[in-house]
Amino acid sequence: MAKKEKEAGSRCCVKIVNKKDVYLTEFANENDYLRLKRLKGRHFSFDASFPDSTTQHEVYTTTTAELVEEVLQGRNGSVFCYGATGAGKTYTMLGTLENPGVMVLAIKDLFTSIRQRSFDGNHVVQLSYLEVYNETVRDLLSPGRPLVLREDKQGIVAAGITQYRAYSTDEVMALLQRGNQNRTTEPTRANETSSRSHAILQVVVEYRVKDASMNIFNRVGKLSLIDLAGSERALATDQRTLRSLEGANINRSLLALSSCINALVEGKKHIPFRNSKLTQLLKDSLGGACNTVMIANISPSNLSFGETQNTLHWAYRAKEIRTKTSDTNEEVIEISETGTDQAKLLLELQKENRELRVQLTCQQQKLLTLQAQSLAANASPPTPSSVMSLETPSTAQPKEKSKHRSTFLTRTCFTPESKNRGAEEAVVKELRLIVKALELEMARMKKDHATQLKQKDDIIRELSRKNEKTAEVGVKKGVTRASLRPKEPNPGELKSPSHRFRSPVPTAKKRSFWDITTANSPSVTTLHGRKTRSHIISEPVAAPSMLPQPGFARQRPDVHK
Question: Is 2 annotated as a binding residue?
Answer without folding.
Answer: no
